Amino acid sequence: MASQSGLSIAEASLLNGANLLTAWMKWLWAPLVDISLTPKRWYMFATSASALGVLAMATVPLSPETLPVLLPVIALASLINSMVGMSIEAIMAATIAKGEEGRVSAWFQAGNLGGAGVGGGLGLLMLQRLPERWMSGAILGGAFMLCCTALLFVPDVVPHLKGERVGAAVRGVFQDLWGMVRSKGGFLSALLCALPVGTGAASGVLTQGEVAAHWGAGETDVALLQGVLAGIITAVGCFAGGWLCDRLHPRTAYAVIGLGLAAVAVAMGLGPATVEMYRFFSLTYSFGVGLAYAAFTAVVLNSMGTGSAATKYNLLASLSNFPIWWLGLLLGWVAGSQGASAMLYAEAALGVVGVVIFALATRAVGRSRMAD
Fold first, then answer.
1. Would you say 347 and 52 are in contact if contact means Cβ atoms under 8 Å apart?
2. What pLDDT score does 34 carry?
3. Does some domain include residue 1?
4. Fewest CB within a 10 Å sphere: which of 34, 48, 250, 264?
5. What is the domain range of residue 245?
6. Are 196 and 351 contacting, i.e. CB atoms less than 8 angstroms apart?
């Protein structure tokens, strides 16, 4: 739709960039969830506000002239929506048993990515076919609110720092955070999250009309392969990733999956530029993204413990979202200036470099005197 509305590939990449801008900064406000209210109440507030946000995003027309208005709307909606995830992460950390990280991560990311893919695909179809743009936002916002019924089946969790004075509570959060980062597992998890490994950043670029046209794919292909079908295939990948993390250490699984995604990107770039190849590799890539996201969550849950869970999870999530953010913008520029295949090669090369850096760091940290 961005291409049809006169936006260039680089301008269209800014839409996703605005969404991810707050995603790598969200550790700044995550302590709010750890020191106030309860995760259930935060979920209700953030979901309600997110419903209004998606309605506002659908209402603003899409054009180069409205881009300065739309980008702040997307960024604000993303900021509020980040608290939905924070509340769920706090509940997960307080309720799962040791050794269940893979299974829990699979369900968490299947809902996260599967919902984004299916919801995004349906949103695109509704924007194209409903008589008014705002209707798609209203329908999706209503679907958001229905998710609150799941709270009836979830135990309530009281933040362990709730009731403390604000200053003492914030200090407690950062003490918990420092305790995680200075351990071997916490440090390696943070490093792995900060590297451009298993980002899936090419997904957003592959949805753009000019890029999809390289393979001869049109609107329907993009809506299905990068939306509804991607959501389903990604969810399957999440369960496979959770299964793998129950059998390998999550950090090892994450690095291996990152190499696998790089291989898929190279194969897609080298393969024939046909619609059939776009369909096959888009679904294969989506499966790999599901693997990677489930492994990421398992890495975080394995290393963070229970105290100040929202802050610790979102520090690592912010580190992980930073390479997704800058790499998505870089890949959009490469695709616009050098072509779709060069974009895929660039993502693959950076992914391999990231895994090599992590392997060298793992060896060095293993020999260090850092706490286990």
1. no
2. 76
3. no
4. 48
5. 9-156+164-367
6. yes
pTM, full prediction: 0.75
**Counting beta carbons within 10 angstroms of the beta carbon of residue 371, is it exposed (0 to 12), middle (13 to 18) or buried (19 or more)?**
exposed
pLDDT (0 to 100) of residue 164 = 52
Write the pLDDT tens digit of every residue in 126-144: 988 899 989 999 999 999 9
Amino acid found at 66: T
**Angle, alpha carbons 192-322-342 (nearest 5°):** 90
The answer to whether the CB of 19 falls within 8 A of the CB of 75 is yes
Phi, psi of 198 (to 5 degrees): 60, 35
Specify the residue for token string 């076919």.
Answer: 129
CA distances from 304 to 95, 226, 299 (A): 13, 32, 9
Low-confidence ranges of the chain (pLDDT < 70): 24, 159-181, 305-310, 371-372
Residue 168's domain is classified under what CATH number?
A: 1.20.1250.20
Tokens of 367: 């020999």
> Which amino acid makes up residue 339?
G
